[in-house]
Specification:
By secondary structure, this protein is of the alpha/beta class. It has helices at 76-91, 103-112, 125-134, 144-153, 156-161, 185-191, 199-213, 230-253, 262-275, 362-371, 374-382, 404-414, 424-427, 430-445, 450-459, and strands at 13-16, 65-70, 94-99, 119-122, 163-164, 167-168, 171-177, 180-183, 311-312, 334-337, 347-357, 419-422. Residues 1-26 form the signal peptide.
């Protein structure tokens, strides 16, 4: 899916962000010493001083509240809440944050009950489309100020992901690069392994590691509460776009081609050469079927103790490594681009969240606009010194990103060398992308064939 960093670990939290801020000095209306206005976001809470001049357009919103519902939970939720502090301090708004690992299911329950949040961070454009169509009386199109921000800082393709039937609803938030394979640089160096640059080299390396160690080189896990299965859909999507190309991939997620067409069944089988092969997976965690029950947050950990060598996961997995893990080219872990299968293109699976409003109160509209701004993107980057977060916002200064790996991801996402393709399950109808595709992955990992699973998903595709 996801992503986005939409799958964090931890319990749901409902907290006003002002309550978690560190001691702040009074807001300053003097922008003379501020570097805001150039896309840098000005001084943030972390620096002890906030330039409030950049928030004057929102006016005085003292005493108001905005309720946010999202799938972004601990530890990423803390950084989200810190990034709201300048907006809260300068406008007087209190942002009440609620994160849930059951977001996709529970948001629909809330909407059916007429209990919509003010704002929700949508991790799937497909789910966004479903909500706009099924709950048209509750959603609110983005206001003019938000539209202006998006037009200034995002490409048309990113704006398109938040658009339904020609109406723009949801502004982009964070962005993810998903086509990465994590590994231990020291383990590679000690064994004389080189980072593969083609798919054939990746498979040859996997076979070599299995032969050298007598153990499966890959570790994986797709358990994620009500969203169990989504990491497997990411893996499948990475293989599909590499196997059938970008146009074939687009035909697949738009259903212009059948989900169970032969070339896509073959893609599942190619993925199965890793995820269903007992010689390849699940290093340090169990047999093949353990992939279905291993938490995605912990699935890469065997790399740290030498029981696994390869783990495919998005850039935001950086935040899931245990405290004290060094993420660096010469550190405990690093990641390389998941190689393409041909030389024609280098696809990069991407994802992100989109800010959908369910109310048009001034404070809600102001918050949505803030989240689309360069000020927020840079505040969020500064609030995430540990890394694991990037944005497609062109006003983001990469110097503000927390780690070298974040900058690598930013460079990859912005490079013409790679072709960005959005997470397919996020673009499918919600019943598939956040439903039968997820459960189909679990069925596949626990015994069903590629043909059986794709047939079932195709049969259940909504009209």
């Amino acid at each position: 899916m996801t992503s986005s960093i939409r799958r964090g670990r931890g319990m749901a939290a409902v907290v006003g962000t002002a309550a978690v801020a560190l001691v702040l000095s009074a807001c300053s209306s003097d922008s003379g010493d501020s570097d805001s206005g150039s896309g840098d976001g000005g001084d943030t809470a972390a620096s002890g001083e906030i330039d409030c001049s950049v928030y004057e357009e929102f006016g005085d919103l003292s005493g108001t509240e905005v309720n946010v519902y999202t799938s972004i939970v601990e530890p990423e939720s803390d950084q989200q809440k810190e990034s709201y502090v300048p907006f809260e301090e300068c406008t007087g708004v209190t942002v009440n944050y609620e994160g849930s690992r059951e977001f996709e299911a529970q948001l629909l329950v809330r909407l059916q009950a007429g209990n919509a949040p003010d704002v929700a961070y949508m991790p799937q454009p497909g789910l966004l489309s479903t909500i706009v169509h099924d709950f048209s009386d509750q959603v609110v199109p983005a206001g003019d100020a938000t539209v202006s921000m998006v037009d200034e800082y995002f490409t048309e393709s990113w704006k398109g992901f938040g658009t339904v039937d020609g109406t723009f609803y949801a502004a982009p938030l964070g962005s993810n690069g998903k086509s990465f394979v994590w590994y231990s640089p020291s383990a590679f160096s000690d064994a004389g392994y080189e980072v593969p640059t083609t798919w054939d080299e990746l498979m040859q390396l996997s076979e070599t590691i299995a032969s050298d160690t007598g153990a499966p080189p890959w570790c994986a896990g797709v358990e994620s509460g009500d969203a169990t299965g989504w990491p497997g859909t990411d893996f499948i999507e990475d293989v599909v776009v590499r196997h059938v190309g970008v146009e074939g991939y687009e035909a697949w997620y738009t259903h212009e081609a059948a989900f169970n067409a032969p070339e896509y069944v073959e893609s599942w089988d190619i993925a199965g050469e890793i995820l269903k092969n007992p010689e390849m997976v699940n290093g340090g965690l169990g047999d093949v079927t353990s992939v279905a029950t291993t938490s995605w947050t912990d699935a890469g950990y065997p790399i740290l103790d030498g029981n696994c060598y390869l783990h495919r996961a998005a850039n935001f997995y950086q935040t899931q490594w245990p405290e004290g893990t060094t993420v660096a080219e010469d550190g405990d872990v690093w990641a390389f681009y998941m190689p393409a299968m041909n030389e024609d293109t280098k696809p990069m699976l991407v994802g992100g969240e989109f800010v959908l409003a369910f109310d048009d109160r001034p404070e809600v509209q102001a918050f949505q606009t803030y989240l689309a701004s360069a000020d927020w993107a840079n505040n969020k980057a500064k609030a995430t010194p540990g890394g694991g977060w990037v944005s497609a916002n062109s006003g983001l200064d990469p110097a503000n990103l927390g780690t070298d790996f974040d900058r690598l991801v930013w460079e990859t996402l912005s490079s013409d060398e790679y072709t960005a393709v959005f997470d397919g399950s996020d673009l499918m109808p919600g019943a598939v992308g956040a439903g039968t595709f997820w459960t189909g992955v679990v069925d596949w990992l626990t015994g069903a064939t590629s043909q059986e699973v794709t047939d079932s998903i195709e049969a259940g595709w909504p009209n």
